[in-house]
Specification:
This protein is α+β, with helices and mostly antiparallel strands. The chain has 2 helices and 10 strands. The N and C termini lie far apart (84 Å).
Length: 197
């Protein structure tokens, strides 16, 4: 009779531990799901997310697609933002560099982050960015204007994808949003610029 009581006692202590472990695991998965989803999209081009490439394409394809550029700013960000050219015609496998012009219209430094997407969604796995201002936060001084480059290519493998047969035009779109804590960064930079007495 003693053995069954110990077994019940152990089971009684084990259930709350298992339940607490399950809750902790589920919370961990919830917090990890967003970065994991972003990594998946960047690696596969899912949902129109361009891929990040280490360098230029090793091959050149035959198709030429028109790439259109779009630039926007989020609410409450007093910046002007536009592509220096609205479109280019690009052969698959060829590397292109395009520039976007951005101006901070305020009297203080501001930091913002660009969110990007491409369309149609099927092009995401073939749109490869080598370098982009969207990879990091961008800080502009008061009334500063900057040219920001994007270096990319369209993977020639898209020529083998039947879903890409009717696609002759793609677009790359950016939206700048004010970075969290940008006002604190601006205040710190302004204080750093003041002369020491």
């Amino acid at each position: 009779m003693i053995a069954p009581k110990r077994s019940i006692f152990r089971r009684g202590r084990l259930a709350p531990i298992l339940a607490a472990s399950a809750v902790v695991a589920m919370l961990g998965l919830a917090y990890a799901s967003v970065p994991l989803y972003r990594m998946f999209c960047a690696a596969t081009g899912y949902e129109g997310t361009p891929r990040v490439a280490d360098g230029a394409s090793a091959t050149t394809g035959k198709r030429v697609l028109r790439v259109r550029f779009d630039a926007n700013v989020g609410n409450n960000l007093p910046w002007d933002f536009e592509p220096e050219q609205t479109q280019i015609d690009l052969r698959t496998g060829k590397t292109a560099t395009v520039f976007f012009k951005v101006t901070n219209r305020t009297d203080k430094p501001m930091t913002a982050h660009a969110v990007y997407n491409v369309g149609p969604g099927s092009i995401g796995g073939y749109f490869n960015k080598i370098s982009c201002f969207c990879f990091t936060d961008q800080t502009l001084a008061a009334h500063e204007t900057a040219e920001m480059p994007v270096v990319f290519y369209l993977d020639p493998a898209l020529e083998q994808d039947e879903s890409m047969n009717g696609v002759d035009e793609v677009w790359l779109s950016y939206t700048f949003y004010q970075a969290k804590g940008s006002d604190a960064v601006a205040a710190a930079k302004t204080d750093a610029d003041k002369p020491k007495l």
